[in-house]
From TrEMBL:
Keyword Coiled coil listed: yes
Domain of life: Bacteria
Protein name (Swiss-Prot/TrEMBL): Flagellar protein FlgN
Stretches assigned to coiled coil: 9-68
Entry keyword set: Bacterial flagellum biogenesis, Cell projection, Cilium, Coiled coil, Flagellum
Family per similarity comment: Belongs to the FlgN family.
The species this protein was found in: Limisphaera ngatamarikiensis
């Protein structure tokens, strides 16, 4: 069983590290939005996307280790940690429980921060649309509508802005 426990522990630790890095990037992104650092904001988007791939790989590795341990314990591969933990040696149980709990807690924090950032970015786009609409009356919105379509009907072009200013 130790052949399956140790890789699972390492996978849980690695996943925890990946969640921590994602949370740090999301906090950096939020800071960029709040302090209007648009160049840095664009860099955080790429870093967050790369970290999302790292996190997905860590989760897949952890799941593979969890399935292997479940099989070793005579449980179905789909057995959740709640069914696995009581069957592991008592010496390992507190560590595994703590790692699973920390991963779950950090996942919740990452989800909350991602939702906050989404709302902040959405609000920034809305404000920019209002600004453009003030300078370019009748122009089409630059983002998707509620039904997922790009609204049509605007006549904005760089020359229109030039003519309005000139």
């Amino acid at each position: 069983m130790n052949e399956s426990l140790h890789p699972l522990i390492e996978a849980l630790r690695h996943e925890l590290q990946q969640y921590g890095e994602m949370l740090a990037l999301l906090e950096q992104q939020q800071d960029c939005v709040l302090h209007r650092r648009s160049d840095d904001l664009l860099q955080t988007v790429g870093a967050i996307q790369a970290q999302a791939r790292n996190l997905q790989n860590a989760r897949e590795q952890r799941e593979s280790c969890r399935r292997r341990l479940a099989r070793e314990l005579g449980l179905p591969e789909t057995a959740p940690f709640a069914e696995i933990l009581p069957r592991v040696p008592a010496d390992y149980r507190p560590l595994l429980e703590a790692l699973v709990q920390e991963n779950n807690d950090l996942l919740v924090r990452v989800q909350q921060r991602a939702r906050q950032n989404h709302l902040l970015l959405h609000r920034a786009v809305e404000l920019m649309q209002k600004l453009l609409a003030a300078f370019l009356p009748g122009s089409a919105p630059l983002t998707y509508s509620e039904n997922g379509q790009v609204p049509t009907g605007g006549s904005w072009s760089p020359s229109t802005l030039f003519n309005a200013v000139g």
